From TrEMBL:
Pfam family name, one: Transposase_22
Domain L1 transposable element RRM residue range list: 74-165
UniProt entry keywords in alphabetical sequence: Coiled coil
InterPro entries in the record: L1_C, L1_RRM_dom, Transposase_22
Protein name: L1 transposable element RRM domain-containing protein
Superkingdom of the organism of origin: Eukaryota
Coiled coil (residue ranges): 22-70
Length: 232
């Protein structure tokens, strides 16, 4: 008869248990790896969908903004006109003020105004500054002509008050155009000719050669390389 060592038996049993536990653990790890891989695939798919939706959303926002600005294409904003100076009829008032402001000799026929009204303003100057007057002209060419004459005349005054005339853009486009303000300030200080083209492209003329910038950062880098730049 053989004497069975109880310790040996226990050890072998433990080995079997450990092996089974290890096999079970390996199976669990394999299952977890499959789940992780599946989740990673799902995340990749969702990421692609989100990126697609973001592109579509940006495209639709651009389309809406473009449509809004096209609708405003015949509009002008008159800034600084004293409150209540228009009386009861804004259109009649603007028909009188425009030739007085820009010169009757510049208008063989008066621009046709469709609508005119004051618009609200917000911010720290909302209580003190007069509200802008928004004017919609029947013909786009009249709006362009008024802007051209206003720029040629330079300083505009009405009843001793400084008046500014601006195109009417959407809030989104105004924000984009303001991103060029810092560069424009440098260009003015350096006496470099520039213009901000519609919708949002900076045109800089150096040595008679124009350069176009759609990105404020690129324009800023270019301006800083110019010999006449105050930042050099």
């Amino acid at each position: 008869m053989f004497i069975i060592n109880s310790y040996f038996i226990k050890r072998e049993v433990m080995k079997l248990r450990d092996k089974r536990s290890l096999n079970s653990l390996c199976e669990q790890i394999s299952e977890l790896e499959q789940r992780v891989s599946s989740n990673e695939d799902n995340v990749d798919d969702l990421t692609k969908r989100v990126q697609t939706l973001e592109k579509e959303n940006a495209y639709l926002k651009d389309k809406v903004e473009d449509a809004e600005n096209r609708n405003r294409s015949s509009n002008l904003r008159f800034i600084g006109v004293p409150e209540k100076s228009e009386g009861r009829d804004m259109i009649v008032f603007m028909n009188k003020m425009i030739p007085l402001l820009l010169g009757c000799e510049n208008f063989s026929t008066m621009p046709v105004i469709e609508r005119a009204h004051r618009t609200p303003i917000f911010g720290t100057n909302a209580q003190s500054a007069p509200r802008p007057i928004l004017v919609k002209f029947l013909h786009f060419q009249d709006k362009v002509k008024i802007l051209r004459v206003a720029r040629a005349k330079g300083v505009l005054t009405y009843s001793g008050t400084r008046i500014h005339i601006y195109p009417d853009f959407s809030a989104g486009l105004v924000k984009k155009r303001r991103e060029f303000d810092a560069v424009k300030k440098i260009l003015r200080a350096a006496d470099i000719k520039y213009s901000l083209l519609y919708p949002c492209t900076l045109r800089v003329t150096v040595d008679g050669k124009p350069k176009l910038f759609r990105c404020p950062e690129e324009a800023d880098l270019f301006v800083k390389t110019l010999p006449s730049s105050p930042l050099i």
